[in-house]
Amino acid sequence: MRAALKAMLFVAFTLFGASPGTLSAADLPDAPAPRPGIAALAVSQSDLQALQLRLDSLKQQISLVHNYNQLEGPQDLVRTFMLDVDRLSASLLPLQTQLNAQLSVLGSAPLDAVATEQSDIAAQRTSLAEQKTKIDSTLKTLATLKQSAADLLTQIAGIRRNLLESELTLRTKSILSPGYWSPLLNPTADDRQRLSLFIEQAGDVLKAVWQPGERLFTTVLLLLALVIWTLGRRLAERGLTWLCIHRMPEGRLRRSSLALASVLATVLTAGFSLQLLFFVCTRQSPLTPMLTTFSQEFEKVVYACVLITALSRALLATQHPSWRLPAISDPVALALEPFPRLFAATLLVLMTIIQVANATGMGSDLVIAGRGVIALTVILIIIFLMVRTGKVRRQVVASGEATEGGTTFASLLYALTGLALLIALLSLLSGYISLARFITYELVWSFLIICGFYMLMQLAKDACEYLFSPRSPSGKALKQLLGIDDRRLDQIEVILSGVSRAGLLLLAAVTLVVGGIGTTLGQLVTNVFSMLGGGGLRKLNIIPSHLLNAVLALLIGVYLIRSLRRWLDNEFLPKTDMDPGMRASLSTLFANIGYALVILLTLSSLGVQWTNLAWIVSALSVGIGFGLQEIVKNFVSGLILLTERPVKVGDLISISGVEGDIRRINVRATEIQLSDRSIVIVPNSQLISQNLRNVTLGGSAQGVATLELTFPLDIDPEQVKDLLYDTYCEHETILDKPAPVVRFSKLTPEGITLTVTGYVGSPRIVSTTKSDLLFEILKRLGAAGIELAKPAPAV
Predict the structure, then answer these.
(1) In what residue span(s) does the DUF3772 domain sit (predicted)?
(2) Which residues of 247-269 are buried (b: 16+ CB within 10 A; e: fewer)?
(3) 521 within some domain
């Protein structure tokens, strides 16, 4: 803090021109010569030594760590150290720039300096050069310290990964073994001594805050914390609810805002209460290292439990069912209501006890036994919750009050939760206690992430729908400002809504991977930004054993691609001016590119580096040489069809004696639907390499309805010609231009052959039109007493 204050004061003096090395009116030749070497550095040598000692202390602290969770605190301290170094470096950069500018103004030293003015300038140049050398040296030292801290962060990540792997693969006694429970029922003397030391230090804190003269103030603070947590939370929730009801527009945006307001009121009041309690305990004297470690971990546990209750209350909304965001029936919501509070209270008690054991450094047997108790308790509560919820859902469906079908994602989530619980229970029975604890913690963390981001995604969607609605004030203002119609405004709304939800979904996936229960907000934000910034993807040492990450990347990627494709097909593309064929082509092309990216991301999650894919290319080249030519040729042809679009979905084509409508263009082949509704699958390469007749290309193709009729030789040709011509002209589907034509085609001993031709608007209605014309012509010929020629009898 002292160094940062010095840096800020120095920058202030520099900006106002008060630094000794600055050229000003006092530096004119008439003014006294400046004293060389008096520029005070913002970072002194003692500050650099303090930073080095601070970094060495962190390294020593990390070297003594023997628990995975104990590395979270030092990791945050190293990041804070790097931020402090960056701030100090930033405070020196303006002075470095200023000195460079002053030295460039003075120029290089002349070869002969004999004048008095030249001597003064030389002294000033020497002073400025000395200052610049010191600043350059200090910046170099700070850069070295930052690089050492960055290397330490990389080492911490490796240590955490190794500790996590060793903990997850560590096998101890099963929970069915009597020896497993002995450390809890009969702790060792060393563990009892450590617990007594913790109780003694906690008692000293209580005595300090409850000593005579402090009791009144302590009581007031404790009552204030209690009032904030109980009455203050209710008042804050009611106040935010009033704002949402009276300031938010009626509709879904108000409903999602009410859910967010409920969560914010609960979390903020809990945070204020917790800070008051911490102030009560530390206002007399700072906490001991043991109590400091416990307080930091206890704070994380409290926030996790508060989030569980806050998100559950906001999403279930049992008191106001109309405010409920997810599609949950009232009986199911009422059945779920007591479980979050029970779950949070149980976690708070059990995890607090475990944090006491971790802070005091109790034996590993006792800590592992405590982890097993937490894992078993969480498993039993979740199993009872799932059984209870399933029973109520079946009752609701049987009674016919509501339909609790659920979505595909909810069913998949339900199945994955059941599978995770089964694996955790088997781990407890087989002695892999840390693995079971890890799975249960990840379940709780996944619940927090899914619920929180579900609420944020609903809020983003509802906000976009309102802001860009043609009926809202903001939508009307945008229409007037941009000069766009309602259709374009709907397109903007759909695009922004889709982009925001996709971004939140990606952020949720990253948060699910980089975070965990007990992660602070600062740690979470830092991990997410480092992951999204690209450096994390390059520096993570992911190995093939990380199969879980690959499976998650594949499932989330496929779900995201399918969701975005449904959004394109059902929401965005229908609101554009594209024809159905172009829409289908774009949707298929997007899906193909998306699935390719998902496969590459899955390979990356498995540990396959982007630069080490030469063996895959070699294998593909060998495969292509031995029989994949046709597949690759059809794949490339499919891409050409989707981009150049010589044919598109909905075209009527004829190729190799097959005539029909294009139904779908896939990556390998194209589906052609014939007139009898059967499907012919044609490889894409044939559509590119062979002669193809596209009847509807250009959208203005006409059909030709031609009939050939043979009449006896004794008829009146003009009468028949007029009859045929009138029949064609009077038919509703025959076009006026080009006009129908009746031609004398053939004269034979059997009779006179007349050909009548007319044009219709589409080739698809030719057969129907010809059938109608034949019926009408036969009817009129019969009325006129004209017969068709009869075929000659066979000899």
Answers:
(1) 140-198
(2) ebbeebbbbbbbbbbbbebbbbb
(3) no
pLDDT for the residue numbered 72: 64
Residue 236 CA to residue 232 CA, distance in Å, equals 6
pLDDT for the residue 615: 55
The upper half-sphere exposure of residue 494, i.e. CA atoms within 13 Å in the direction of its Cβ, equals 18
Q: C-alpha distances in angstroms, 111 versus 107, 108, 122, 257, 750?
A: 12, 9, 11, 75, 123
**Residue 642 exposed, middle or buried by CB count within 10 Å (0-12, 13-18, 19+):** buried
Question: Whose CA is closest to 654, among 705, 692, 701?
Answer: 692
Look up the CATH number of the domain holding residue 739: 3.30.70.100
Domain final residue pick, 624, 659, 694: 694
Query: Is residue 328 packed enough to be buried (19+ CB in 10 Å), middle (13-18) or exposed (0-12)?
Result: buried
Distances (CA, A) of 764 to 486, 654, 694, 756: 35, 13, 13, 19
Whether residues 269 and 342 share a domain: the answer is yes
- Contact of 85 with 50, CB cutoff 8 Å: no
Does residue 290 share a domain with residue 235?
Answer: yes
Low-confidence ranges of the chain (pLDDT < 50): 1-40, 113-117, 403-405, 532-542, 544, 795
Give per-residue pLDDT as tens, 736-757.
888 888 888 888 878 888 888 8
Same domain, 157 and 242: no
Range of the domain at 98: 2-168
Are residues 460 and 497 in contact, defined by beta-carbon separation less than 8 angstroms?
A: yes
Look up the pTM and report it.
Answer: 0.60
Same domain, 68 and 127: yes
Q: Is 428 exposed, middle or buried (0-12, 13-18, 19+ CB in 10 A)?
A: buried
Tell whether 431 is covered by a domain: yes
Residues 355 and 309: beta-carbon distance below 8 Å: no
* Residue 606 domain-assigned (yes or no): no
Give how many domains the chain has, as a whole number. Answer: 4
pLDDT on residue 406: 53
Structure tokens of 494?
A: 């759909």
The DSSP secondary structure of 285-304, one letter per residue, reads: SPPPHHHHHHHHHHHHHHHH
**Domain membership flag for residue 573:** no
> Longest Cα pair distance anywhere in the chain, in angstroms?
139
Residues 111, 160 within the same domain? yes
d(CA 738, CA 757): 10
> Which pLDDT does position 574 carry in this prediction?
82
The strands making up 751-760's β-sheet, listed across from edge to edge, are 703-711, 751-760, 741-748
Per cent of the chain over pLDDT 70 is 79
Q: Which residues contact 197 (CB under 8 A, 6 or more apart)?
A: 290, 360
Q: What is the per-residue pLDDT for 323?
A: 86
Burial 440-479 (b: 16+ CB within 10 A, else e): bbbbbbbbbbebbbbbbbbbbbbbbbbbbbeebeebeebb
Could you give the strand order of the β-sheet that contains 652-655, starting from the edge strand earlier in sequence? 679-683, 669-673, 658-665, 652-655, 693-694
Q: What are the residues whose beta carbons fall under 8 Å from the beta carbon of 243, sequence distance 6 or more?
A: 261
Count other C-beta atoms under 10 Å from residue 660's C-beta.
Answer: 21
Domain identity same for 70 and 91: yes
Residues 304 and 203 in one domain: yes
Q: Are residues 30 and 136 in the same domain?
A: yes
Distance CA 705, CA 765 (A): 9
Confidence at residue 553, expressed as pLDDT on a 0 to 100 scale = 80
Letter string b/e over residues 704-739, b meaning 16 or more CB atoms within 10 A of that residue's CB:
ebebebbbeeebeeeebeebbbebbeebebbeeeee
pLDDT of residue 309: 92
Give CA–CA dist 526/77, Å, rounded.
12
| pLDDT of 588 | 77
pLDDT at 623: 57
Q: Which residues, 6+ apart, have CB-to-CB distance to 231 below 8 Å? A: none
The H-or-E segment that residue 63 falls in is helix 45-63
Choosing from 467, 501, 527, the residue where a domain stops is: 467
